[in-house]
Amino acid sequence: MTTRKDWDTYFLDMAYMASTRSQCSRRHVGAVLVQGKKLLGAAYNGAPMGVPDCSEAGCMLVEEYELAESGGKEQVVKKQRCIRTIHAEQNLLLFTDPKDREGSVVYVTDQPCWTCANMLANSGISEIVYHRPYPKDSDKVKALMEQKGIIFRRLEAYEPPAGTMTEVQH
After folding, report:
1. Strand pairing report for 38-44 and 30-35
2. Which of these is catalytic: 89, 102, 127, 159?
3. φ, ψ at 103 (rounded to 5°)
4. Contact call for residues 44 and 28 (beta carbons, < 8 A)
5. CA nearest 16: which of 163, 170, 168?
6. In what residue span(s) does the CMP/dCMP-type deaminase domain sit (predicted)?
7. 127 is catalytic
8. CA-CA distance, 130 to 87, in Å (whole number)?
9. Of the candidates 45, 59, 169, which has an alpha carbon nearest to the alpha carbon of residue 112?
10. 1 pLDDT exceeds 80?
11. Is the pLDDT of residue 135 over 90?
């Protein structure tokens, strides 16, 4: 007899399955919206519909500078990020009904970035469950979720379904 998956594993598996649709060469991310035990939507990161994605047109990288603290000292750090793709969490919010989001849970393969966290914080959801950390924005995002009263959990021991995990490039 096989062991039945718990709900967190079941829905995070679905987020990872959604991520397999991504064509981003840097990171495949998937997200699902759940109310109760009902799946209300799924999304992944990618270019807008009808527009060439990163696999066809290459990444559209921009350079950004941000202050980072290291050893009690602030320093300016140069980062690159792709702006061709819409993040999975953003697509999820674009393609689900705002009424359905009230009190719902978002399962996402990766900890949301600052921009996605802001959008999710304003969407009416009550919880975010994720697997892979995103250290760049981690402290800011955790503080925001605490301030908003949104449950924010990482499933560290979670194992994604075979064939769904992609190498993360920074």
Report:
1. antiparallel
2. 89
3. 75, 10
4. yes
5. 163
6. 6-152
7. no
8. 14
9. 45
10. no
11. no
